Amino acid sequence: MTVVPTVALTGVTKRFRGTAALDDVHLTLGPGITGLLGPNGAGKTTLLRITATVLTPGAGEVVLFGTRPAGPEQLAAVRRRLGYLPQEMGHPRGFTGFGFVDYMAVLKEWTDRAARHAEVRRVLELVDLDGVAARRVSALSGGQRRRLGLAQALLGDPDLLLLDEPTTGVDPGQRVTLRQVLSRAGERSTVLLSTHQTEDVAALCDRVVVLDGGRVRFDGAVADLVATAAGRVWLADAPDPAARASWRTGTGRHRVVGQAAPAGAEPAEPTLEDAYLLLLGERARTTGVAA
Amino acid sequence: MSTSTGGWHADEDLLSRYVRGDAGPVAAASLEQHLLRCASCRDRIAAHVPVPLLDAAWERVRDEAVAGRPRRLERLLVRLGVPAPDALLVATAPSLRTSWLVGLVVTLVFVGLGAAYGGDRGLTFFLLVAPLVPVAGVAFAYGPDADPSHEAALATPYPATRLLLLRTAAVLAASLPPVLLAALLVPALSWTAVAWLLPALSLTAALLAASTWVRPTVTAAALGAGWTAAVTSASRAADPTAVLAPALLVAYAVLGCLALLVLALRSRSLTTLGSPS
Ligand SMILES: Nc1ncnc2c1ncn2[C@@H]1O[C@H](COP(=O)(O)OP(=O)(O)OP(=O)(O)O)[C@@H](O)[C@H]1O
Ligand SMILES: [Mg+2]
Ligand SMILES: [Zn+2]
């Protein structure tokens, strides 16, 4: 039996004024949660936009649920099955939290008022916003607004969930709540989320894709990426300027990520962040990944 | 969530009268407000009502309260036969209020100026601004610059062209009548008071067509500049109404129809973010 993948990208390329935001990307996704990592400008947003059908690729093929969304009917059929949280998600003025999600639900063809309101209530409860849903969006905090954006993406329990930095600005307690929501969604849906928090990926994702300069640099199990850092992370008493990265940790010792063990260092358990730093080398250090 | 209720709570008598429906409108409304915030009164009211009835009623009250009452415009549209979801989408066009206001302000300023100056000056000013009111209204009601949730809305199955046309219709309905009304009140305008509608509609159609290539705000700026140049040069040549010459009126009508054709042919490009490539 062949299973049709939810997302199949082949040779997807997108250029903006000559520079490639995506360069020959091949990616196949099925149910489960995939994390998308990469430095600023790596092409994560471009990839999510193309997958969400809001941006057309310059070259290559995008197949969603087994069809190429060419005509308006196919496009609408695909969009019925996806939930999308853009990186820059604003809200029109004057809406309450409930009113905004209600508005998005109308666009998602929830025409029956009672059923729609029940669904809006459900997703607001999922992201723990039911208590403040009557407030104006402009009176919500940044993290609350981010969760409101996530709530609209969850409407109708979509088969494909595309989330561009869903946890940005969200406090640790709420991040754990969101992890629970997303892990439940990932049991049956295909979830692709970009983030700068390697710990979100480590905590949530089965699979990780690392983009850099528009190219896929790694695509595989999270554990496999972490394993590439085995034997390349140490705790030392002094910083190591020759290493890929070294910093003083809260305990006073220095964590050293690199190729060679510094004198007097003891090996440390590698994390996803260490592996990411090693994979991207100097680029990751200079363009920065949120620690 | 914080549930400050100022220490006041409904007594059993009020709760039971409310449930029976004879608490009186003022007391009922203020109790409903209180129930939204007070879990303990919600719990206590349960004792007075059959349970399924209570749940249904409570959810209805809560949804109405948190969704915000349907706006007046929305209710009006529903009464006029517009499907309820479309009415909601029109009423929530990001800045319909702005286009109403612009229409109104322009009207008042024009009436004032017309009265003060009379003659060509007032006329030039009117011709300069009136046809651009709906253009500005549409530019501020649709697209990535006007609607901060534009990208999320694009990813929904709702047809982008339909949304654009709904909002355009709403902007026209909101902004044209006040300007038209005021223009008709000034006798000096004679038939100019009506003729400006043609370039107004034609420019709006051009805006829609161009929005399949570039964002509406950019096009609106370009159209505004072009129209301003046309009216000023006509005014310099001593007759501002030259922009409404019969031959030009025909041209506006033709251009408007062509623009709508372009919109229909290129409507697919409205379904994605425009991007330089
Ligand atoms: N609409 C656009 N116009 C021009 N250039 C663009 C556009 N969108 C993206 N780019 C360019 O494409 C590249 C990839 O951008 P993208 O937003 O996909 O990166 P990203 O990985 O999401 O970055 P970040 O982590 O900062 O969100 C960048 O160099 C960016 O400047
Ligand atoms: Mg991005
Ligand atoms: Zn109370």
UniProtKB/TrEMBL annotation, chain A:
Organism encoding this protein: Geodermatophilus nigrescens
Entry keyword Zinc-finger: no
Keywords linked to the UniProt accession: ATP-binding, Nucleotide-binding, Transport
PROSITE patterns tied to this protein: ABC_TRANSPORTER_1, ABC_TRANSPORTER_2
InterPro entries membership: AAA+_ATPase (IPR003593), ABC_transporter-like_ATP-bd (IPR003439), ABC_transporter-like_CS (IPR017871), P-loop_NTPase (IPR027417)
Coiled coil: none
Record bears the keyword ATP-binding: yes
Domain ABC transporter: 7-238
Higher taxonomy: Bacteria, Bacillati, Actinomycetota, Actinomycetes, Geodermatophilales
PANTHER family: ABC TRANSPORTER, ATP-BINDING PROTEIN (PTHR43335)
Family: Belongs to the ABC transporter superfamily.
Gene Ontology MF, one: ATP binding
Name by which UniProt lists this protein: ABC-2 type transport system ATP-binding protein
UniProtKB/TrEMBL annotation, chain B:
GO molecular function: zinc ion binding
Pfam families: zf-HC2
Domain Putative zinc-finger: 12-42
Signal peptide: none
Keywords linked to the UniProt accession: Membrane, Metal-binding, Transcription, Transcription regulation, Transmembrane, Transmembrane helix, Zinc, Zinc-finger
Transmembrane segments: 100-118, 125-144, 164-186, 193-214, 243-265
Domain of life per record: Bacteria
Official protein name in the record: Putative zinc-finger
Organism: Geodermatophilus nigrescens
